[in-house]
Specification:
Chain lengths: 260, 309
């Protein structure tokens, strides 16, 4: 019996789970188009169109490449992970998965893999627009390290999405995520550079995860505010750990609720 | 079955022992014992809220018992050994809608060491011709059949079917019964929950009736039907309730406003007794008791037996 269980190819399960998770999301244009298109549209509007002729203290197309990249990845992670978990949890699909012999981590690993891939697509298309319409010129190594920081950061927001998904209902999850993501993106300087925001917002930003994330991305371009990297990393690590803890409590709480 | 050694032959494939489950102040299961033996089709029959789904969730390791024990193939229901030998059809409102029928089956099959060939699953669940359709585009009956296919595709020794035909029309329900019946004849164990006596009767070798979180009766479908199927008699009578309840063949009686209501195995006998004792009796009405009402009387019987014991 034990040998039989080991007959299963775990790698194959993980691979198939990820494949179908990606397929599932790609066939949902209502979700995919806004999460991928909004950052691109914003970038074109604020980073490219409004920039012509007005050279301020920043190189806007380059600066906003990092912050809209951060905004885009954050949304992919929050909605791809958080909304998906909330919906599948609320509608009973997660219950079926838990009752099945699926290795429990396969479910989350597949969602995380999907977040990585869609983040890469997001960052890749933003870079394309930046390099062409935005006229951004960077050293090859800089493109790579910016992309690396942006995609790696998705882990933090996937953890946050998971926490929201483990508590919010299937119908309210998207609204809750929007209520959190939009103001915090603005307050962290993802839409308008942090230096141009009022003093109060600058102080609040220090407590917002997207701020620390975007500063790490900007650092690869030498456009950050010069705060220590270790501080940003520590903030994001603690934040992610708290989110995972909340998610764990949320899933435990589910066990005590379903009855009939 | 070939994969069972003789030693395992009579060991229950699923078992609840004195299982209690409380959700805060609500007691969903108040100490319940039953087992499913190899090759047996057992129906858990009971009205909504009786605790059927909770019993299934305990056996699937989805919730932990507050007291007592749940065993699946003699092991912890959460262990991969137990899970790779069982398949479940749960009451789920929605399955991801943007995957095709074939893709759903392909993925769930991969969880099992020896899944059935795809073509066999498609045929057994009656999904021929719609394999390439997205789940979201299917009708209610087709969706239920996909859920059944997902329970079946790993070729499990034990199938859990939680209210498999809820929301289906009569025709779809009957064709579903045929499919489940075939699987049972192939020697698989099945634990089915339902609130239709007809369904339990059509499918099960043994019926375990539960109400308010307890087992209130257990037996073959014929035995259960003999206890459950009865008639409801309503009338206006001057006889005291205790006397009515003690009449031969009467299982239970209660006051409903001005009227007296009683449940009887044979209505004719009860009516004869009533009329001979109270000639002034009026507003007489006799009709079939539905399952819900039959449960009520059986539950009362059960409780008074317990109080007496």
């Amino acid at each position: 019996m034990i040998a039989e269980t080991q007959n299963r190819n775990l790698w194959r399960i993980y691979a198939l789970e990820a494949k179908y998770e990606i397929l599932k999301q790609l066939r949902l244009p209502a979700y995919l188009v806004p999460t991928l298109a909004f950052p691109l549209v914003f970038y074109v509007m604020f980073g490219v169109a409004l920039n012509h002729g007005a050279k301020g203290p920043f190189d806007f197309p380059t600066y906003l490449l990092a912050t809209y990249g951060a905004f885009g990845v954050m949304n992919v992670a929050l909605f791809g992970f958080g909304a998906g978990v909330a919906i599948e949890r609320g509608q009973g699909w997660m219950l079926f998965k838990r009752a099945s012999p699926m290795p429990p981590f396969a479910y989350f690993a597949a969602k995380l893999a999907t977040v990585f891939i869609l983040s890469l697509v997001m960052v890749g298309s933003l870079f394309l627009v930046g390099a062409t319409a935005g006229g951004v010129r960077l050293a090859p190594g800089t493109w790579v390290s910016l992309a690396g920081v942006l995609v790696a950061g998705s882990v933090v927001f996937a953890a946050f999405g998971l926490a929201v998904g483990s508590w919010a209902g299937p119908n309210s999850a998207i609204a809750v995520l929007n209520l959190i993501s939009l103001p915090s993106a603005f307050g962290s300087g993802l839409w308008i550079p942090i230096q141009m925001l009022p003093g109060v917002v600058k102080k609040i930003a220090l407590f917002l995860p997207p701020y620390h994330y975007s500063q790490l991305a900007l650092r690869t371009l030498g456009l950050d505010r010069g705060e220590p990297v270790a501080g940003h990393l520590a903030f994001l690590a603690v934040f992610a750990a708290i989110c995972l803890g909340l998610a764990w409590i949320g899933f435990r709480r589910d066990e005590g609720r379903t009855f009939g | 079955m070939t994969r069972n050694t003789p030693f395992e032959e009579d060991r229950p494939v699923a078992q609840l022992r004195r299982a209690v489950k409380r959700y805060g102040a609500v007691t969903a299961l108040a100490g319940i014992d039953f087992a499913v033996r190899p090759g047996e089709v057992v129906a858990l029959l009971g009205p909504n809220g009786a605790g059927k789904t909770t019993a299934v969730q305990l056996l699937l390791g989805l919730v932990r018992p507050s007291e007592g024990e749940a065993r699946l193939f003699g092991a912890d229901p959460r262990s991969p050994e137990a899970r790779t030998r069982s398949g479940a059809m749960l009451q789920i409102s929605k399955v991801p809608e943007t995957l095709k029928v074939r893709e759903h089956i392909h993925l769930v099959s991969s969880y099992y060491p020896r899944p059935l060939p795809m073509s066999e699953v498609i045929a057994a669940a009656g999904l021929g011709g719609i394999e390439e359709r997205l789940f979201g585009k299917l009708s209610g009956g087709q969706k239920q059949r996909v859920l059944f296919a997902l329970a079946l595709c790993g070729d499990p020794d034990l199938l859990f079917l939680d209210e498999p035909t809820v929301g289906l029309d009569v025709e779809a329900r009957r064709s579903f019964w045929t499919v489940i019946g075939e699987k049972a004849r192939q020697g698989r164990s099945v634990l089915l929950t339902t609130h239709y006596l007809e369904e339990a009767d059509a499918l099960a070798d043994r019926i375990v009736m539960i109400g308010r979180g307890r087992v209130i009766a257990e037996g073959t479908p014929a035995e259960i039907k003999a206890r459950v199927v009865g008639r409801k008699v309503r009338c206006h009578t001057a006889l005291p309730l205790a006397e009515v309840a003690a009449l031969p063949g009467v299982r239970g009686a209660r006051r409903d406003g001005e009227l007296t209501e009683l449940f009887a195995a044979e209505a004719e006998r009860a009516v004869f007794e009533l009329l001979s004792r109270d000639p002034s009796l009026s507003a007489l009405e006799v009709r079939g008791a539905d399952l819900e009402e039959a449960f009520l009387t059986l539950t009362q019987d059960h409780e008074s037996e317990e109080a007496a014991a």
